[in-house]
Amino acid sequence: MARLSKMQMMKEMVSCTKDPIYFLENYGKVRDPVNGIIPFRLYEYQKVCIRSFQQKRFNITLKSRQTGLSTITAGYIAWLITFHSAKEVVVVADKKKNAQGFIRKVKLIIRNSPNWMVPKITIDNQGSITLSNGSRVEAEATTSNAARSESLSLLVIDEAAAIETGKVNDLWAAAYPTLSLGGNAVIISTPKGVGNFYHKQWVAAESGESDFNPLRIHWTQHPKYGKDVIWKCMGCNHTQNESSVYSPVCNVCGESSLKPESPWYIEQCRQLGDPRLIAQEMDMDFLGSGDNVILEEYIKKTELNVCAPESVGGFDNNLWTWEEPNETDKYLISADVARGDGSDYSACHVIKLSNLEQVAEYRGKLPPDMYAKFLYELGIKYNKALLAIEANSIGYATCLKVQELEYPNIFYSMRGQFNARDRRKLEKAMMNKETMVPGFQTTTSTRPLAITQLEEGVRTGKFVIHSTRLVSELRTLIWNNGKPEAMAGYNDDLSMAAAIGLLIIDTTLNDMVATRESIIASLTNYGSQTTLAKDEVKELSNVFMNERRRNSPWEMSVGTTGIKEDLSWLVGKRKG
Fold it and tell me: Please, what are the domains in the chain?
């Protein structure tokens, strides 16, 4: 650029002060991985973002990868602190080094601008930069103290979805009082699951329920990446050349299920490989991008069976029923127990054993003793269903109360570290009631097993779900450091109740049958040596293999005396 006169410099200063786009396109620089430092050239969608940063106090962006939003925001910050005095900007990310990378982009623009235009840098280190006009930018990891300032001008949260929900909630709670007095905020991120801080803020912004202005930046808006894009309808498979990421509607079927593809997109998907990463980095898909236990595609298939309950009952109207009991069917009730006064719920499902169909569901806040009475009545109604109650902590009190009420069909499990596949222990336990306790024992080993059984049931379609409440919970059930749990601020009570029921059905009930057969086989081998043993095997066979022929299928002869042993305690059955 030719040397400018003082008058020209003044005109340039005025133009740059008024318009960040003018400043960036005429003086801004960015680092290109191939060509090094090159002039800043803005695409149309990037200009829209900068105008929004200027005109709207709070902005939130939902973006695809490689759309340059971080660079654009860094350019806006460089303009803000260069042409305005005493501005305090804080950039936060999940880790401080990531926020420092953001600051480096700001420094690059300032250092490559003419000396007569930019203030002198007075403090320059890895985590901050301060100018002689009193403006400064600081990079911080996400903590509640990161944005505690009485003069915060702009808060930028980079890749907000990657930040732990509790931390970013604390940050926002600390920063908002100051920002509400006149500061600005920009939240930048690709999606990563639902239920987190970023997802909630985006949903609220799109529905007009918050102060944030939503900015959707899709890869198709980039001139290079969106070249030769084709929009494919996921409903009728029709393809068309023109559509919009804001309102993708098929020209044939009218459905809004169009998905864009291009040679660049296909290559990026090949490199990413993982469908979750593709949903996160490319498709801007909240539902498919998180660390969810169950993939969204399986949940969507499950939703085909979701319907309104045939009846709503219970004293709190939280018992949903899709099918009344059939006298020829057998049922299992699996229940999770909460204190009744906190944020968690007591929850249970009635599952028809013949086809693993959910026929009733409860979710409410009953005290443990009242919940026991409720489960008793529900179990009696459903043909004295096998009642499996999660027996940890407060749940054990519910189990004891159900015992006290003399419910005839309680599920029992082994004491201590229950292993549903330990056949030898199960055989011993069946011969000694002292080793069994009422209810299901949830441990560090059984919880993942139960969740895995739930995932399999949903994925394969074996578990037929009718409840919108359960489906909603499944969408917020995630892996957190290898542990299955609900996202912060959500519940997993219905999910755990279903998981416990499915694990019991697939393991313990099946293994009890197999264990009985094993006992019979052992006695058969022994009985080949004596007529008396053969008679015992015949008696056992009547008990285990053809129970309907006997008046009491829970009694068997033991020893040589003919005395009958009552085995009904195995599933909590009582005489009478």
Answer: 6-218 (3.40.50.300), 230-289 (no CATH), 302-511 (3.30.420.240), 513-571 (no CATH)
